[in-house]
């Protein structure tokens, strides 16, 4: 089997906020072209910071990458602006369903196409495609975003990102605050977009269970470090992952890392 092209390569990055707070401590990960890669871990693990480092949104939060490198198709991208990133086909969907409340759903979607210069007909075609994936948005297209449900706003945020014709979407906590059946619907659409439109996804998600069902590969972050990674199906079967992140098994272990170091010690002593 041929190895997929690596679209994104994050190599040993450290991120510091306000010149003092070290949030990421040597994070490395790869996103192959055409795959769905999940960044997993609890609140405060560093998932959002990793996405922001990739899309160059750290400066607004007084954060910066102080070590390591980030490459998109072999090109260093740490110094690029967010609009440069969009031009290269990388779009981030922020956590918390950011929509322009006073605009209609359709107006929100069209703001995603502002960087495009391939003409109105092409934009209209993409809009139709977005409505095919999100029929509910088509029904609500004249409604102000403020008066739509959380699920509709999440779909609108993803749809707006798609209007830029991205090669890769960075999706931050898509399940947050949504009812389980809506979460399922959103992830089904992500998988569809990945399969049919060949959009690559890097998604940060606390809901490990659903993320591992839809992803190809997963990285688990804890306290700013990657403590484990592997094919999604292997992580789903891993006993420690089941215990810590899938809510199976009892035990009173304090952290995933403690288990790893305990097992390592056991191996060395054996």
Word description of this protein:
This protein is an alpha/beta fold and 270 residues long. It has helices spanning 47-55, 82-87, 105-111, 120-133, 135-139, 150-162, 180-196, 208-214, 232-237, 239-245, 256-269; strands at residues 6-17, 21-32, 36-40, 63-72, 75-76, 90-93, 168-172, 200-205, 217-222, 225-231. The strands form two sheets. A six-stranded mixed beta sheet has the order 6-7-8-3-9-10, with helices on both faces. The protein has a four-stranded antiparallel beta sheet with strand order 2-1-4-5, covered by helices on one side. A hairpin with a 2-residue loop joins strand 4 (63-72) and strand 5. Helix 3 (105-111) packs parallel to helix 6 (150-162). The longest helix has 17 residues, at 180-196. The two termini are 37 Å apart.
Keywords:
alpha/beta, disordered C terminus, 4-stranded antiparallel sheet, 270 residues, 11 helices, 6-stranded mixed sheet, 10 strands
